[in-house]
Structures are given as C-alpha cells and as structure tokens.
C-alpha cells in the first residue's frame, strides 16, 4: 500500500523540470522581491528617471530627490495629477544646492499591477513629471504622460502614505546634482542698449592666427610623432575659424 502510493508520484517527479543554478553567469540578478530600485526625482529637469520600472512584489523602489522640491504621489490610471484615495504619497522632499545628504522615499512594491505616480508640486505633473511602476506597455507610459500634460492643474497629496522617508549620502545617489544656480546677474550697463548687437562677437580676439601654425603638424603623419611632442589640440573655435578662413 505504501509502495504503490510512492510509485504513483514517480511520473509527476519526472515531469517536473529540474532547474540548476547557472554558476557561470557573470551577472546574477538578485531574486525577485529582493531588489532596491533607484528612481531619481527632479534635478536639472522636473522628471522621474527612469519613468518606468519593472518591480516584483517585495521589491523597494527608492525615490532619490534631486534638485527642486518634488513629491511621489499615486494617481488613478484615468485621473492623472490627482491623488488616488489611499494611494502612496511621499510628501514634499526638497534638495538644495550644496546638500550632502539626499532625501529618499522607500516604497515597498505591494502589487504587480501598473502603479501610476506623479509629482504634485506646482505644474510639474503638467510638464510630464510622471511615471509608471509595472506598465503593461511603453505606450501606456506615453499615454499617461500625455494625459497628465492635458490636465490644467494638480491636486496635492495630504499625509505621507505607502513608504518611508530616509536619507542617503550624495556619493551613493544615482544622480549628480545640477550645478549651483548662479546669483542673479548684475544689471546691464546703461550704455548697453546703444551698443550694436554684434559687439560681443566683434570684441572677441580673432582666433584665426592660431590656425596656420597647425598646418605643419597636420601634414606630419600622426603615428610618427611622439605624443609628448605633439602640439596641443587646437580649440574647436580655432578649428572652425580656420576652416572658415580657408573657404
Ligand atoms: Cu516635481
């Protein structure tokens, strides 16, 4: 009675494929549900980068907030730029010039279904600062961006839901911050309006004189010239101006 029962399992065991780990793979993806997926929020432009990610249940999307002041806020598929009831909201997380720590929002992925996210700051959503976790297609991302751009304004989120705010060192961030914004430029001198529009170009020293000096080097086969003795590379401007002189 025992043995026939065991034998009856044999066909099932033989039919089950045996998957051996492939140890020669150079890059072994971590198991699903165990990944930290970085997404950069803001920066020189009001964007999510990337604006679509594929995540398994249990993965954590780590939003890293670059320059500006942004949110990660969940909307419905058909209600762009408007918070979904009970949806994820990070609150507004700023990044200012010189900051050495980067604000993050770690969002555990709880569903493999598409998840629609936008930034609720000002007009950022209308500018296309939206993304989808687990989109069904690239077209769905395009459609969501376009639908967001067609809205007239965003609705802000309220309380922080669906993740945890934290910080990482900027050296470990997935982005390089935008260069510090310069102080407001000084007002133009009063006489500026009378100056011809072309005066800045005319005031530049002509670079054409440098071009003829390059000619002998250009005729020398590069391979024979030791690198130490080569003349410095002409600037792009000098090359362009030299070419213009030759025409
Ligand atoms: Cu934003």
TrEMBL record:
InterPro entries: Cupredoxin, Ser-rich/MCO-related. It comes from the Eukaryota. Keywords: Signal. Residues 1-15 form the signal peptide. Residues 178-247 are annotated as: Disordered. PANTHER family: CUPREDOXIN (PTHR34883:SF17), SERINE-RICH PROTEIN, PUTATIVE-RELATED-RELATED (PTHR34883). This is Extracellular serine-rich protein. The lineage of its organism: Eukaryota, Fungi, Dikarya, Ascomycota, Pezizomycotina.
């Amino acid at each position: 009675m025992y043995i026939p029962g065991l034998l009856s399992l044999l066909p099932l065991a033989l039919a089950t494929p045996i998957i051996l780990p492939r140890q020669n793979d150079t890059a072994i993806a971590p198991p699903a549900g165990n990944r930290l997926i970085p997404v950069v929020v803001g920066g020189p432009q009001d964007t999510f980068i990337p604006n679509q990610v594929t995540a398994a249940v249990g993965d954590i999307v780590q939003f890293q907030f670059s320059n500006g002041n942004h949110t990660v806020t969940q909307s419905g598929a058909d209600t762009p730029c408007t918070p979904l009831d009970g949806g994820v909201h990070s609150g507004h997380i700023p990044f200012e010039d010189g900051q050495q720590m980067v604000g993050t929002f770690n969002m555990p992925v709880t569903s493999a279904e598409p998840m629609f996210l936008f930034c609720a700051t000002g007009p950022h959503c209308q500018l296309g600062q939206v993304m989808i976790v687990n989109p069904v297609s690239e077209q769905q991302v395009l459609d969501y961006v376009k639908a967001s751009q067609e809205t007239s304004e965003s609705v802000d989120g309220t309380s922080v839901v669906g993740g945890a705010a934290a910080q990482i060192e900027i050296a470990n961030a997935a982005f390089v911050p935008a260069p510090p914004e310069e102080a407001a430029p000084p007002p133009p001198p009063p006489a500026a309006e009378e100056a011809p529009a072309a005066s800045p170009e005319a005031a530049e020293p002509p670079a054409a004189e440098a071009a003829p000096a390059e000619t002998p080097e250009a005729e020398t086969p590069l391979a024979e010239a030791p690198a130490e003795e080569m003349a410095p590379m002409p600037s792009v401007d000098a090359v362009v101006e030299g070419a213009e002189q030759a025409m």
